[in-house]
Amino acid sequence: MAADDELRVGQARGPYDIDELATPAEELANSHLDLGSVLVPVVEGGQVTVEMSPDHQPEAVYLVTPHGRISVTAFAAPRSPGLWREVVRELAASLRDEGATVSVEDAHWGREVLAEVPGGAHRFIGVDGPRWMVRCVASGPDESRDQLSQLARAVLAESVVRRGKDPHPPREMLPIVLPPVLAEQVAAAQQQMVQQQMGGAVPPGAPGTEASAVPAPAQPEEVAETRVDDDVDGDLDEHIDVERIPGGALEQIEQATLVREADAAAEVIEEEPEEIPPSSGSAMQRFRRRRSKS
C-alpha cells in the first residue's frame, strides 16, 4: 500500500482492521476505548456504561451521549462476505414479530435496520470485514433520532476491530476485554450491589469479593504485557506515559458506570419505559448469543 493510501484513524474510512491500520496504537489511548476485540472512539461530553449479564460478565459497553446511547460490537464471520445481509433479514423479522415497527434503509455501508418503539428507536448498522462483522446499535428518544444516527455512523467510521487469531464460530461475539481500571470499577460496583441486597453483609464468594471479582479476560497474546500510565491497557509495545486529555478515553473509563442487563433498555429511553416492548433487547441478546448451525 502506498504511503498516501495508508489507513489512519481520523480519516473516517473505517471501521478499520487493526492489522491494516497505520496509526500507532499509542495515539489511540485518549481517543478510543479499548475493549479487546474492538476499539471504539469516545464522544466528547459522553460517558461510558458497562452492561453486565446475569452471570456477572460484561455483556456490552455503551457510549452514553446527549442524544442517546451507542454500542459497537465485533463478531466472528466467515471468510466470504455477506453475513450482515443475512443478519438484517433475520433481525428485522424478529423485531417485527415482537412488536416493533421496523424499516430497512440504505445508507453509507448498505442496509441499516431501524426499530421504532414507544418513545424512541434503535438503529442497527453493520459492516462486513475480513473474518469479522462489526455492528453498531444506536438507541435514543424520537427527538434525537437524526443527530444520534449521524453520530453513530461517525463512531463506526472511526472504530477499529481486533479480530485476533483464535478460531470462533461464525456469528459468535468476539470477547469484550475491559481495561484493568474499568474491570476494577465493575468488581467494586458488583460488591456494592451485593452489600445492598444482603443488608451490608457480603457472603463468601459473592460477586465483587476477592474470590470471585470479575477479572479482565485475558488480553490478546500480542498485548498481554503492555500498559498505559496507571495500568490502562492501551495496546502499546512498551510502557508510555500518556497525558490524560479532559473528556478523553482515559478519563471516561475512570468515570464509567455499571448497569444490569435488565435495566439497560429502560436507561436510554426514559419516557414511560415500562411500556417499551422487549423486542429490541431480546433480539439483540439472541443475536449476540447465536452461532451458526453449520
Biggest β-sheet description: 8 strands, mixed
Secondary-structure element sequence?
EEEEEEHEEEEHEHHEHH
Look at the helices and sheets and give the structural class. Answer: alpha+beta
- The fraction of residues in strands falls at 15-25%
- Counting H and I runs of at least 4 residues, what is the number of helices? 6
How is the CATH topology named? Jelly Rolls
What is the gist of this entry?
The chain is of the alpha+beta class and 294 residues long. It has helices at residues 83-97, 145-157, 180-197, 249-254, 264-268, 279-289, and strands at residues 16-17, 32-34, 38-41, 47-52, 58-65, 68-76, 101-107, 110-117, 120-129, 132-141, 160-161, 257-260.
Give an overview of the whole structure.
Helix content is about 25%, strand content about 25%. It is α+β, with helices and mostly antiparallel strands and about 290 residues long. It has a single domain, classed as Sandwich (Jelly Rolls). The strands form two sheets. The protein has an eight-stranded mixed beta sheet, with helices on both faces. Helix 1 runs antiparallel to helix 6. The longest helix has 18 residues. The two termini are about 35 Å apart. The relative contact order is 0.20. The C terminus is likely disordered.
Summarize the topology.
Blueprint: E1 16-17, E2 32-34, E3 38-41, E4 47-52, E5 58-65, E6 68-76, H1 83-97, E7 101-107, E8 110-117, E9 120-129, E10 132-141, H2 145-157, E11 160-161, H3 180-197, H4 249-254, E12 257-260, H5 264-268, H6 279-289
Parallel strand pairs: 1-11, 4-12
Antiparallel strand pairs: 2-3, 3-11, 4-5, 5-6, 6-10, 7-8, 8-9, 9-10
Helix pairs in contact: 1-6
